[in-house]
């Protein structure tokens, strides 16, 4: 990558980080203006258009990055699982750490999942599908079950996880710990039921 290309990528990154910094419980992406993001990034508003067509394109980039960050963390969790430990317990711990460290990233995914922009809703849906597909791959391999069955189990688990994540955003540390225990139990019940059902099908 040449110097000009590196500088362009660095400036683009600055705009993305500036937008993420301005998100909060009180401020959604839709309330941000191009001028605000550019000012936070230390750039002239006209510089914005060298990197993004408009605010929607920037927003879609944030959604993609948020989803990718979460998936990467869960991949790391699976690597930790390979070294020994409870699959569900480690996964829940990793997810809750993500909520604690990057609440506004997860809040972005939740808000845009049911927002007014069809492009944003579709982008979040794709990220959830990617998340579900990776979990499906893992369940299919570990449980030696059919793809469709593993996918159904993965969908149920992802629904519980995202619902719990929404609750966790406004909880204190003690409440989050209790929520993590409840989520762990719920996921274990699904896993046990799936295992029992899978065995019954083979009889």
TrEMBL record:
Stretches assigned to the HTH tetR-type domain: 10-70
Query: What Pfam families does this protein map onto?
Result: TetR_C_46 (PF21943), TetR_N (PF00440)
Task: Give the keywords, sorted.
Answer: DNA-binding, Transcription, Transcription regulation
Concerning InterPro entries, the annotation shows: DesT_TetR_C, DNA-bd_HTH_TetR-type_CS, Homeodomain-like_sf, HTH_TetR, HTH_transcr_repressor_FabR
Q: Does the keyword GTP-binding apply?
A: no
Q: Which residues bind DNA?
A: 33-52
Q: PROSITE patterns in the record, alphabetically?
A: HTH_TETR_1 (PS01081), HTH_TETR_2 (PS50977)
PANTHER family given in the database record:
HTH-TYPE TRANSCRIPTIONAL REPRESSOR FABR
Q: What is this protein called?
A: HTH-type transcriptional repressor FabR
Q: Which organism is it from?
A: Oceanisphaera sediminis
């Amino acid at each position: 990558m040449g110097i000009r290309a590196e500088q362009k990528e660095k400036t683009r990154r600055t705009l993305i980080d500036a937008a993420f910094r301005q998100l909060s419980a009180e401020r959604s992406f839709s309330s941000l203006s191009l001028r605000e993001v550019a000012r936070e990034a230390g750039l002239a508003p006209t510089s914005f258009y060298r990197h993004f067509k408009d605010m929607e394109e920037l927003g879609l980039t944030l959604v993609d990055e948020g989803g990718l960050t979460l998936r990467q963390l869960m991949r790391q969790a699976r690597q930790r699982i390979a070294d020994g430990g409870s699959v569900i317990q480690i996964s829940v711990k990793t997810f809750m750490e993500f909520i604690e460290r990057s609440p506004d990233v997860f809040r972005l995914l939740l808000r845009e999942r049911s927002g007014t922009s069809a492009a944003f809703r579709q982008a979040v849906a794709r990220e959830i599908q990617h998340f579900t597909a990776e979990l499906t791959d893992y369940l299919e391999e570990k449980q030696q079950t059919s793809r469709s069955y593993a996918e159904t189990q993965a969908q149920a688990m992802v629904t519980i996880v995202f619902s719990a994540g929404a609750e966790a955003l406004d909880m204190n540390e003690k409440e989050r710990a209790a929520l993590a225990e409840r989520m762990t139990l719920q996921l274990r019940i699904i896993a046990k039921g799936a295992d029992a059902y899978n065995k019954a099908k083979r009889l």
